[in-house]
Amino acid sequence: MNYASTEFLILLSTVLIAYYALDRRHQNNLLLAASLVFYSWGDFRCLPLLILICSNAHITGKRLPTLNSEASRRTVLILSLALSVGILCFFKYLGFLCLTFNQLMELLHVQYRFPEPEIILPIGISFYTFQAISYTVDVFRGNCRTTTRLKDTLLFLAYFPQLVAGPIERASDLIPQFDNRRAFCLKGFTDGIFLAAVGLAKKLVIADNISAEVNRVFSNTEAAGITVALSSLAFAIQIYCDFSGYSDIARGVSQMLGITLSRNFDLPYFSTNPSDFWHRWHMSLSTWLRDYVYIPLGGNRKGSVRTSLNLFVTMTLGGLWHGASAHFLLWGAYHGLLLVTYRFLKSLRTKPRPPETLTRRQRVVYAFCFLPLTCYGWVLFRVGSVTQAVSFTKAILIPAQWGSLGDKTALLVAWKLLILGLPVLALDAWALVSRRTEPWGQLRPTHRAILFVAACYLCVIAGELENKSFIYFQF
Q: For 383-475, where are the alpha helices, taking DSSP H only?
């Protein structure tokens, strides 16, 4: 079910009609029923898989506190993680592994080919599997309590505002909110409506209108360097507005229900370095990778070389998490290399200067210098193959392939960037200057009402109203 659809609006309205008249237990039952309907809407065949992963996490969570031996607890945890990761790998990576194996056999001139399975990727499997893993690991570490009933664990994993594309929530943050009855709060409710409207405008007006030009460029294997450069910036705006727009809708809808979700973006294109970027982009994923991959690998506790290796492996796995494709692997490895290089250069300075001590002018200069590196990463993310990635990289780096701004495609992309991308960067600049990620929250009610009406009006007259899915739904 698409969040920008009539069906979702009907589902949400139906829930809200009765929600605040119920006690805590029935509020949770209503949310769980709505979540199961929401997830089953697209393909009900995927629902048993969600329940299976939930059951595994729930049983493990109840079993761990009863074990006295550390070895037994670790064994139970490893078996649980193996099942969750195994299910994720089967549905998401088996086809990719078979294809890679067959390509290797061709290179070796071996006639044998492994049958390539046609497996439907369940929507949101990466997100709710990661939440299930965090729940079991946190119970093991003693960072959160165990849920007593299966339906409580299922509500944590299947909560519909963030089920299919995050934010990836922690049990210690979300489950306690389900333990208390949510009373109606007019300010919270109106804030949620406003935030959802802003997110919808980001998606329909900006992201979807830019996507046509971006798709046109990336559907070809070759393009002029100026076109690739402009398109990488256009895709940076598209994916930012698409994903942060979804996150705003999810947070807004959840706020209407009296439940707070974590913020996923913090002005990422004003990042001053690779580390700063991953503290600002998809923050729920980056903190998940830090806590459940990077730190268990050893973090920065085992020397400089091991720390660099841990960073690189973590980011490469993060890239592969986005999809079973070589270009996602390249994208993750590229960001891993950026982090390792930045860490090395930082170690050469006698007095490293943290980003928070920079003046606003210095931050803008540093961000302007770092933005091209981020945009090149989006080229690796968006291309359809390694061959296209090589072709586009050559177009950017070789002056003879740069072309001119007079190219028709380049002009169209530049025009879309001017009328759609520039306002986004201007709003983020406003947020940076005001030192608030969402400065419109501080506006007077009258001004916010005007902005809300403007956002809705733009969605109607300029929004791409076709039933388009959000980019991160595919992950």
A: 386-397, 408-416, 422-434, 445-462
The answer to whether 243 and 470 have CB atoms below 8 angstroms apart is yes
Catalytic residue set: 322
Spell out the residues 6+ positions from residue 368 whose beta carbon is closer than 8 angstroms to its own.
Answer: none
Task: Let me know if 287 is exposed, middle or buried by CB neighbors in 10 A (0-12, 13-18, 19+).
Answer: middle
Find, among 415, 412, 392, the residue nearest to 228 by Cα: 392
Residues in Cβ contact with 338 at an 8 Å cutoff, skipping those fewer than 6 apart: 274, 373, 377
CA–CA separation, 269 and 434 (whole Å): 16
CA proximity to 309, closest of 333, 287, 284, 345: 333
Q: Enter the pTM of the model.
A: 0.89
Task: Dump strand ranges (E) for 19-71.
Answer: none
Give dist(CA 435, CA 75) in Å, integer.
47
Angle at 42 between CA 40 and CA 44, to 5 degrees: 40
Give the pLDDT confidence of 362-419 residue by residue, as tens digits.
788 888 899 999 999 999 999 988 889 999 999 899 887 777 665 778 888 888 888 8
Q: Would you call the peptide bond into 48 cis, given omega within 30 degrees of 0 as the criterion?
A: no
Where exactly are the structural domains of the chain?
6-184, 188-467
* Token pair in block for residue 97: 């592994």
Per residue in 110-163, pLDDT tens? 777 777 777 788 888 999 999 999 999 999 998 888 988 999 999 999 999 998
